[in-house]
Amino acid sequence: MAEIVRQLFAARFLRFVMIGGLSFLVDAGLLVLMMKLGAGPFAARVVSIAVAMLVAWRLNRALTFGSSHDGQLREAGRYALVAGSVAALNYALYAGLLLAVPACPPVLATAMSTLLCTGASFLGYGKFAFRTG
Q1: What is the pTM of this model?
Q2: Tens-of-pLDDT digits for all 133 residues of the chain?
Q3: Is the CB of residue 1 less than 8 Å from the CB of residue 15?
Q4: Exposed, middle or buried, 73 (CB in 10 Å: 0-12/13-18/19+)?
Q5: 102 lies in which domain range?
Q6: How far is residue 73's CA from residue 70's CA, in Å, rounded to a whole number?
Q7: How many separate domains does the chain show?
Q8: What DSSP line would sit under 60-125, residue for residue?
Q9: Which residues contact 125 (CB under 8 A, 6 or more apart)?
Q10: Which of 122, 110, 92 is nearest to 27 (CA)?
Q11: Are 126 and 66 in contact (CB under 8 A)?
C-alpha cells in the first residue's frame, strides 16, 4: 500500500512540475515581451506572474489535483490565497536578486525564484487549495 501511495505522489508531483514548467514559460515569455514593449522588469513581472498563476490554476485543477468538492468559487479563493502568498515570496526573491545583483538577467531571476518556491506551492495547493474533504 505504501508503494502505491508513493507512486501516486510521484506521478502527481511530476504533473505539477510539468505544469509549473509551462507556467514558467508563460511567466518568462510575457516578462520578456512586456519589457520589449517598454515596461520595466518590476512592473512587467507583476503582470507576468499573475497570468502564469491563472494558467497554473486551470491546468493543475484539470490534470494534477482535480477539483475540490465545495465548488469552483471557494476553490478559486483558496487557490488565490496560496498562489498570492507564494507569488509574494517569489516576487520578493526575484526583486531581491535583481537589486542585489543588478547584472542578473530578469529571466534568470524569475527561474531562480520560481524554483525556490516550488515545494511551498505544491504543498499549499495539495493540502489546502484543492482539498477534497
Answers
A1: 0.80
A2: 677 767 766 788 999 999 999 999 999 999 999 999 999 999 999 999 999 999 998 999 999 988 777 888 888 899 999 999 999 999 999 999 999 999 999 999 999 999 999 989 999 998 898 877 6
A3: no
A4: exposed
A5: 2-129
A6: 8
A7: 1
A8: IIIIIS---TT-HHHHHHHHHHHHHHHHHHHHHHHHHHHHH-TTS-HHHHHHHHHHHHHHHHHHHI
A9: 16, 60, 64, 65, 79, 82
A10: 110
A11: no
Looking up cell 487557490 gives: 79
Q: Which residue has the cell 507576468?
A: 48
Which three three-digit cell numbers place residue 73?
468559487
Q: Cell numbers 468538492 correspond to what residue?
A: 69
C-alpha cell at 4: 502505491
